[in-house]
Every structure is written in structure tokens, then in C-alpha cells.
Amino acid sequence: MQQIFLRRPRLAFFILTFAIAWSIWLPVGYLAPKSLLLAIIPGAWAPSLAAILLTAVSEGWAGVKRYLGRLFKWRVGFGWYAVVLFGTAAIAYAAIGLGVLLGGHVPALSLPAGVRRDAWPLVIPIAFLVNIFMGGPLAEDLGWRGYILPKLRERMDALTASLIIGVVWALWHAPLFLFPEGASVVGHIPFLWFALLTTAWSVLMGWAYVNTRSILMPVLFHAAMNTTLGTLGVLGQANGSLTPLILNTALTWAAVAVVVAVYGRDLQRAHLAGRGWFQTGVTQLPSGQLPQNGRRMISRWRTAKSGAISPRTGVEATPEVSSEVFARAQAAAFGDVVDWPTRLLQQRLGLRQPLFKQPFARRKAGRSLEAADQGALAHPGLSRKPLQR
User: What is this structure's pTM?
Assistant: First the structure.
């Protein structure tokens, strides 16, 4: 069994995810349907449990610790928080507005039983936290986005991987559509529209994860989706109105089209990394290529010195980027940042020649640069051109 997990981790993940969840939901749904809502929670943890198990088998508990550490990566830029927290609501209310223009009406909120209509501002944060810990976000996205998405990206681009995950994700929820008690769990959305929405959401959540390497972003995205469309039911689907839901599905796929048009099939653009609100902390570099602007790199320092991200430059530790490139990039970034005040003073004074032939920070970094150059010469996959100081 362990050899199967090691050789085919992707297939093993899908098998375990379906086996754990369906072995709970189907028997309870048929034998004790009134208890299905209680059985939803342990079954929902199937993707995350499968991911943790497979990571432990392949990388040990140290690997599990690194894997779970991505859940607590919160320094990703304000813009990503705006997208994951309010993106679903923005699309939903745009769909409602479009429906009103077409002659429809604004659906009433479907608050939980016993909650007063004027208490919805208090309900939202409580429902959001409950959805994170008692619903699907934390239970599912450690697996769907934190484990299987990176595994699939080893074989294909992020768009294709996200589409595959979206289809599988929708099918994984299928038992909940077989029983009336499961309707509230899936937001009273018919399976066809649920599958289309889930696949589109998978791409958008994959986009957020790929650009931040933070599992927290998909978790918050999922919680916002469940709160907006499930707990609050802003589209009115629980009352039988499908027009806002159909418009919302179309607008969500339009958002997917915009993301793919701007970011490409891998859902990321390296030259946008670290800019403004959408700081990502991740830059992928091919063999021998080094960051050109240390000031931009310095904003992406990370603490995972032995992990996937260089602590100073934010360069991702892909197979194409060796430790020699890390050393060179770190030294270049350190020199650029520390020497920046002298270059600014030179510009302000209008001097044509630099204030120092070799600024202090560069001299200090010179030893590590020379050592890195010598190491790079011994690496056949790297550029043999020494770093320009």
C-alpha cells in the first residue's frame, strides 16, 4: 500500500478522498437520513485527511509540518484578501443587479431560522467563522488546493489542473444531492449549476493559491462562498428562483475568462509578483536567471529557509533553480537594498559618477558572490556568466 501511495500519489489522493467521504455519507443517507447533517462534517475532512496521510508517507512528519505551514502564510498582499473575501459577493450582487435590469427583483436573504432580518450584520462574521471550522473550507482545501493542485501542476498547467479538480470536486459532492437532507449543505443549488459554479470557483481559487502559495487564501475564498451563497442565500435559490443563479454562473465564468486572459494558462504572471496590493512573494526563475531589482525582492523575505521559498528573494525552489542561484540572488538583493540610499543621493545631487566604485554592501556580499559563482560553474544547468556586480 505504501508503495502505491509513493508511486501514484495523485490517484491515491482521489481514491482516498472518495472512499472516506462516500463510505460515511451514503450509508448514513440511506439508513439514517435525519443524521446526514451530522455525518457531513467527518466526511468533509476526507480531502485534507488524505493529503496529510500521503504527505506523511512520502515526506515524513517534517514534510507534514511544512505542508501545514502554508495554511498560516498570511502575508500575501491586501488585494488577495479583497478578492477572496468579497469577490463572490461582488459577482453575486452584479448578477442580482443584472437580473433587476432584465425585469427581475432582488431576492430576500434566507437567514438561519430564528434570526431576525435586521441582525444580518452580526450573523455574517459568526457564520463565516462557523463555515471555516465546521464546514468545507478548512476540511477540504488543505487537500484540493494545498496538495493535489501542486501535484497536478507537475504534469500540466494550473488552468487544466484546476478544471480537473473542479469536475472531480463537483462529483465528490454528488451523494449530497441524493437525499433531501443534503440540499442545505450545497446551498439548495441544482446539481448542473452547482457543477458549473464549482468548476469555475476551482479555477479562481487555484489562481489565488498559485500566486500566493498560501492555503489560507482558498480557505477564506471557500468560506466567503459558503457564507454568501449558502448561509445568506443572496441569490434566492432556496426560494426556487434560478435566474440570479444562472446569471451568477455566467458572470463567474466571465471572471475566469478575464483571469486566464490576463494571467495565462498557468494563472500567474511573474512580472506582476510583488507589486502593490497583489504582492505574492513568489517568483519563478529559469536556469541561471537572477532577480534584477533587489528593492523589489526585499519585500518578499520569507522565514522558510529550508522550505520552498528563499528567505530573502522569494525565489521558488523549483528543480531549475539551484542553491547556487539562491546564494547569488540573495547577495544581489542584499546589496541592491542596502546600497539604494547611496544611489538615491547620487541621483538627487545630479552626479554622473557613483559615490563609491564598489559600495560597502556589495563589498560585504562579494565573498558569497564569488563562492556562488564558483559553485555555478560546476553546475551544468546554470549560466556560466558570473553575476555582474
Answer: 0.70
